[in-house]
Amino acid sequence: MKIAQVAPLYEAVPPRLYGGTERIVAHLANALADQGHDVTLFASADADTRARLVPVRDQALRLDPAPLKSDLACHLGMLDQLRRRAGEFDVLHFHIDLLHFPFFESIAGKTLTTLHGRLDLKDLDVAYRRWAGFPLVSISMAQRAPLPEANWHGNVHHGLDAAGYRPPARPAGDYLAFLGRISPEKRPDRAIAIARAAGLPLRIAAKVDAADRNYFEQRIRPMLDDPAVEFLGEIGDADKSDFLGNARALLFPIDWPEPFGLVMIEAMACGTPVIAWRCGSVPEVVDPGVTGVIVDSEAQAAEAVWQVQRLDRRQIRATFERRFSAAAMASNYVDLYRRLTDGDPRVRAQAA
Fold it and tell me: Nearest 10 degrees: CA dihedral of 314, 315, 316, 320?
């Protein structure tokens, strides 16, 4: 199949440091190419891909040192290029929320749009009713809850290239890990409290967005005075196998309706169990007693730190390979692509 993958331009594909959506696009494009499909990736020029790259900007926005730049202008330029070339592809797969809807409405039936973010925002329900002809993909069933009547074409869990994550032969297991972003909904303060209650050090590898700088300075930085808490800042993919693989467990103490939670399967890829709050997608991702423990309180989480020692790290990795590999994700998407190209009547009805 001839497939266009359309990435956001905020991070490189894959990201150099923190980043979720662009990382998934990178792994999906490579896996589809490995399976023999003709894949064209629309992304910034700093992408590293086995697909055919169409560079629509010189570099990704976040690490671009230019003081003034327009994310809207570069995304619109990318969409203009793609619209002119749309006839070259069997499927146009978008990962940019709904920005493309007004421009591709006449060919909505040959598009697929994966929604990567939360959907409980004001105005979204109106937009998805207005452009109901676009087939949508959720990344968890929990993500769909605010928009149950949207034009859902499928549900595909994220996947990662298994070769990029290597469990250590003898994991140290003498600390807990927190990976991701410092923000109120990610609850790094809760992770610190859990580690203290369990009597283990905590290592935090996380990005601090400008929007969360005050939260970090006022709420989290004072907690970093504890010698048992180490803040590493952002880390890239090259450091994740060591960081995650040597941890006793990944703490995922979220306080929001997480659409997926990529760090959970990154930990599983390293053979590391996950201790996660019962929130959002967590019950769909974590297999209790196999890949981790799902909790409802800090006390349960502190107790789970000792329970996870009994889990088989080889089984955790095997479960990741079966459920969350890039190859599995790509195969699931190909099934959805074929429904589009074979003329799924539900797609035709919505697009009419």
Answer: 100
The count of other CB atoms within 10 Å of the CB of residue 314 is 10
pLDDT of residue 120: 95
Instruction: DSSP letter for 325, please.
Output: B
Q: Which residues pair with 325 in a beta bridge?
A: 160
CA dist 17 and 234 (Å) reads 6
Q: Determine the Cα–Cα distance for residues 332 and 340; give it in Å rounded to an integer.
A: 13
Q: Which CATH superfamily is domain 2-161+325-351 in?
A: Glycogen Phosphorylase B; (3.40.50.2000)
Q: pLDDT digits over 98-150, tens only? A: 999 999 999 999 999 999 999 999 999 999 999 999 999 999 999 999 999 99
Interatomic CA distance for residues 289 and 311, integer angstroms: 7
Count Cβ atoms below 10 Å from residue 67 Cβ, excluding itself: 5
Question: Is-contact 162 320, C-beta < 8 A?
Answer: yes
The topology (CATH level 3) of 166-323 is Rossmann fold (3.40.50)
